[in-house]
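COMPLEX REQUEST
Ligand: magnesium ion
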Amino acid sequence: MKMRQLIKRARNFSKPFRVSDGKGFRLKDVDPGDTLDFTSEDKPRAKEALATGVEALAALQDMLYAQDRWAVLLIFQAMDAAGKDGAIKHVMSGVNPQGCQIYSFKAPTSEDLDHDFLWRCMKCLPERGRIGIFNRSYYEETLVVRVHPEFLEKQKLPPELITKDIWEERFREIRECERYLTHNGIIIRKFFLHVSKQEQKKRFMERLENPVKNWKFSANDAKEREFWNDYMKAYEDMIRHTATNDAPWYVVPADNKWFTRVVVAAAVIDALDGLDLEYPKVDKEKRKELAAARRALLESR
Ligand code: ATP
Ligand code: MG
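STATUS: Structure written out below.
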């Protein structure tokens, strides 16, 4: 398939899941089991599409790196076992590791807690020419910290700054920060992998029953299921407040991993294509330099 055609398909494929204006967004409108018009028989076709997508992505990343102007930040958020790690691994499998920077954000350290809430993520922003991946991010500050207020207490904030408006304020601060980054050439795309509670249960059971998956199981993850509805409310509110044209959310159905990965790959291809990437042009001066180097090399032994 020609590159242009593939890019157009990628745009159309990822578009139904893109939220660039959060106002009317309702999480219940997205079915975690959605696979558009693909059925499970189409799985091999989806895998092929992913392989083609991964190749295209590698080609685009190569130009991103050579051009050294833009940076791309991909943020992944999800409930446990939604397939964040697998999606990152598969979608990025073709890209040059040199052009890629991945960070996972777990529970904050005491050093993190001694700073403002964006600090630890700002230290990890991608350099120009690179694709940066945040596996969890500052969005946890409006998710786990909102669902468990005891985490907020540990943040050592001056008490008078903790008011009922704190979440609205954090949303605004995040929006402003993302606008600032965008204006500095860091392109942001955010992914919420939306898995259903039943599918999560199935995946946890697999982790318990399959010895090679045992290591992935954490009793705490299972405990967080009790807060499922609070998390869903927090995710919905987060998307409503932070989906913007510059930094859209993709709410990706995640009950079928093969489908999730194609949507993520398509959205990343679309983002890279929007940058009008090209290899740096060789000017007259440089051409002369290349010709001289070629001559010298030919004459040498
Ligand atoms: P995996 O389980 O696949 O290794 P993970 O991202 O789930 O990946 P864990 O170490 O299991 O990693 O979990 C990280 C935990 O850290 C999550 O429960 C998350 O909610 C929590 N966390 C992340 N950021 C914050 C934060 N700012 N404050 C409190 N907890 C946080
Ligand atoms: Mg985990």
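REMARKS: The chain has 13 helices and six strands. Residues 80, 218, 221 surround magnesium ion (ligand 2) (CB under 6 Å).
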